[in-house]
Specification:
The chain is an alpha/beta fold and about 450 residues long. About 35% of the residues lie in helices and about 20% in strands.
Length: about 450
């Protein structure tokens, strides 16, 4: 029997899918296939954070349900899903489960046709509960890469930003046992993984739900830094996503002290206007954010800075958008993930009138994207002539070239047909640049 799993959304869903694959293969005995048409079991890890991702779910399940007329087929869905979307999917999928109910999946698949799909989901109203998420974390993941890995350290969020659906899809914050995290990191390092990303909806609030019983995020980073210090292996450790409200100078100080803690900070700002930030319930004024960036620039001047920004949030004026452009000019991000605001059912802002016209959102998106390109291009030009260690990630679209990432996650490429370099560190000298990437030549 064969299965195929489609993963939509963020890195957390990718990490979850690696554990789901272990359960399907080791506990049920299904074998992976790259072909949807060959599969007897088809699943999706969905994401309700963006409507586009939900639209992809409907497209897939309509196709799969047509195939049921020709062969026996079981379909399932899980992931980061709003209660309203869950209820709609009940009529379309054979099996629905939350990650905290993962242990039911093997039996549900074996007994499919006996158990009612409606009974598998439990309470679809209110906020997702995470009582059994610890058990899911203890599943050894089937990593999708031999050199890059995601390590979940926390699930859920307590911040309730008005535009965000995550507290309703993943529930309140729950921190994973630090001993399990450190063991997984040690195992990955021993197996020569080169890039390890700590995952959570709000990583720097790690441990706050278990005060007195668990270490803090800075302490966790320090322990991982010590693993790197004591190891003869070379690797980079990243984390995403932090919230500016919980980011401390201590985190930045610890990153500056350990070579294995990557000098790349992803710090979502969402807007450069304080009134918009208040409406978003972000609880970090621009001044607080600026203080964090100043500490980063002082303690880790070589660090790259990434962010998330929403344009066209409900009520955003031209002047408020210009304030966001000003912070783009001030902080000169290396990368910004810019989104045009869209309402998500369940989030607080879905009750408000989405009063910024689509054309205005699109224009602001393009303007801010152009600003990003200008500042990123300036940084990349400064890299020309310098040597950089990079992690080779695969073949580049340009024939005869390999793709790579610097420690700061600047997209790179260099001429080589040696596929054995994929998954390894090499040094390249930058010889040219574009707005969002650089090109180098291999240094012997």
């Amino acid at each position: 029997m064969k299965y195929h799993l489609i993963t939509l959304g963020c890195q957390m869903n990718i990490s979850d899918s690696e554990r789901v694959r272990t359960i399907i293969e080791k506990e049920i005995g299904y074998v992976w296939t790259d072909s949807e048409q060959e599969a007897n079991l088809l699943g999706i890890l969905a994401c309700s954070v963006r409507q586009k991702a939900i639209d992809k779910v409907y497209t897939r399940i309509q196709k799969w349900n047509k195939w049921k007329k020709q062969k026996n087929l079981i379909t399932f869905i899980s992931g980061c899903i709003l209660p309203d979307d869950m209820k709609r999917f009940l009529k379309l999928f054979d099996i629905i489960f939350r990650m905290s109910d993962f242990e039911k999946l093997p039996e549900l698949i074996r007994q499919y046709g006996v158990v009612s799909p409606a009974s598998l989901v439990g309470d679809l109203s209110g906020i997702t509960k995470n009582e059994n998420i610890d058990g899911f974390w203890r599943v050894n993941p089937k990593y999708s890469s031999k050199f890059e890995a995601f390590v979940p350290i926390q699930n859920g969020c307590n911040k309730f930003c008005t535009f965000c659906a995550v507290p309703y899809t993943r529930g309140r914050e729950v921190s994973r046992d630090s001993n399990e995290i450190l063991e997984e990191v040690k195992r990955l390092v021993s197996e020569d993984y080169k890039s390890i990303t700590l995952l959570g909806q709000n990583v720097n609030s790690y441990g706050l739900d278990k005060k007195g019983k668990e270490i803090t995020f800075p302490e966790l980073l320090k322990k991982i830094g010590e693993i790197g210090k004591e190891s003869d292996k070379e690797f980079w450790v990243y984390f995403t996503s932090p919230h500016p409200r919980d980011m401390t100078a201590e985190v930045i100080e610890i990153i500056s002290q350990y070579d294995c803690l990557a000098k790349q900070i992803h710090l979502p700002i969402q807007s450069g206007d304080n009134k918009v930030l208040i409406k978003m319930n972000r609880k970090h004024p621009v001044e607080k954010y600026r203080q964090i960036v100043e500490v980063i620039r002082r303690l880790i001047p070589e660090a790259t800075l990434f962010t998330d920004i929403i344009v066209g949030f409900t009520g955003e004026t031209d002047e408020q958008f210009e304030n966001t452009r000003k912070i783009m000019d001030e902080f000169r991000y290396n990368m910004a993930y810019i989104a045009q605001y869209s309402q998500r059912p369940g989030a607080v802002s879905s009750r408000w009138i989405d009063d910024v016209p689509r054309e205005v959102k699109k224009a602001r998106f393009h303007q801010l994207s152009n600003d990003l390109r200008k500042y990123s291009a300036a940084h990349n030009r400064d890299m020309i002539g310098r040597n950089y260690k990079v992690l080779v990630t695969g073949k580049d679209r340009k024939e005869g070239f390999l793709s790579a990432l610097t420690e700061g996650k600047i997209v790179s490429r260099f001429q080589s047909d040696n596929d054995e370099l994929i998954g390894e560190f090499v040094t390249i000298k930058i010889i040219s640049s574009t707005d969002l990437s650089v090109e180098g030549e291999l240094v012997n």
